[in-house]
Give the backbone structure.
Amino acid sequence: MKTTIKMSDMTLGNIKNVNYGSFNTNANFSNINKSNVVGFYGQNGSGKTAVVDAFKIIESLIENRELSQIGKRLVTYGKENLWLQAKFIVILENKKKLYLEYYVEISEKDSGYHVESEKLVYKEDEKGKRFKTLVQADSDTIYVRNQNIKTMRDEMKIQGLVSFHLSKKQRKSLIFNSEMLPIYNEVFSKEEMQIFYALSIHFVQGLHIIENRNYGLLMANILIPFNIFQDEVKGIVPLSQSVDNKSAAIPKKIFDLLKREVFPNINVVLPCIVPGLTIEINEIAEIHKEGGTKGIQFELLSNRNGNRLPLNTESEGIIKIISMLSVLSALFKETNVCVVVDELDAGVFEYLLGEVLKIVDESAKGQLIFTSHNLRIVELLPTHSIWFTTTNSENRYVQLKHTSKTSNNRDVYIRSLQIKNQQEELYDKTDNFKIKRAFKKLARKGSHHEKQNSYSFGGRGH
């Protein structure tokens, strides 16, 4: 049995417009090998994408990447630091059950992000057990099993301090730097190393984040952000294909992976979702790049019952589904897979999306966490799978009250928007009369300017 890990809770502090927000995924030891679907709903600008950004922060830190690569402002305006707490449930190879928690605080200064503190603790799933600190860091030093790195023997002290200062300079995680591994191996027990690897290897290997901005170029018909999750290979391959069906070259290794494994696997599922449709990737020419590497120029085709056309002639919704299928398929293979998707419903037919999510919820193994505006999904998923954003920045995420097994969650939600019967206000209600009056005022203003301009042009004409 290999190590199994799933996120159980997350708390956000001072991230964008979320001063405080907490949610859980309903994952526990009894259902850890079953699917875990969590959706976020709410009005625009109410904190849904902040959840995706939180996962991006965690991914960047654990994979020891520079925080500057996130590429957006995240700290709430007027606040000095943002902070995150992520909780996990873990079952080790020896079947021991554990709770694992990761905390990080990040400041925004000197035109960049800096890790101010981090902490990784765990507790065994047994009555009376307390949390133990694996490793923690502050602005001054690192503590491994509560032992200050500065008090360790010289060899470990030097290596630890060099790693610490290098991480600070590079704006990376203070505790997930690979240079710390020799120290961890000496101080941690064998079991504690497995706990550390549960997060630093098993969780991040299964984590795949699909940001909405990735699809901007798809909508502009410039490229397809193709998401790959095939065995040990995961990531986004930008498949560029112009209107005349000519493509930029991709590495031969990636082309072979798409041709031999990814596309054939997608074609098992795709015809069931879009009847009669399969996709093909064909080599046009082999190109030798600088440095002696080989690239492949290719064509992407959709095949509908033998009728082949360039893939970019299909609708944006179909192409988006195709671009995510490799990742969604991974949810059915591995328990440790965690797929996070921003605006999952954008461009996708609502009935089809609902049916796909229902299948994932009933039959998959991994976690799917998404944001959406499509309320059909609210009708299909259980109440515990849906979180709604509120107008209260100090309590951004809540679940519906006053529901039962026979309730239609969509109806309950819409009624809550109208009569405000939940613990928090879910919608910053608009005044239709004011909106109408504003539009009429704008229209009158436009007519006035138009009349002035016609007189002015008329005068010039004479």
About this structure: The chain has a mean pLDDT of 85.
